[in-house]
Input
Amino acid sequence: YKEYTSENVPLSEESVAESGAKSILTKIEEETAPGATLKNYNHSYVKNDDNTISVTIVSEYIENIAKMVKVE
Output
């Protein structure tokens, strides 16, 4: 048997915002077309109240949208 104690450590706003940004980017990656590459992204956050933070992400992807069409 081992004894464990748990303690609550308050998180900083920046670490929560960074974690939220990574989670949102993961979801965006799942929805993008295969072969699309992330070029750049920026995130910002706003503290709504003592318990909530809103994270906003602006991301730029490069993807090939060309289609081959037979010319008649």
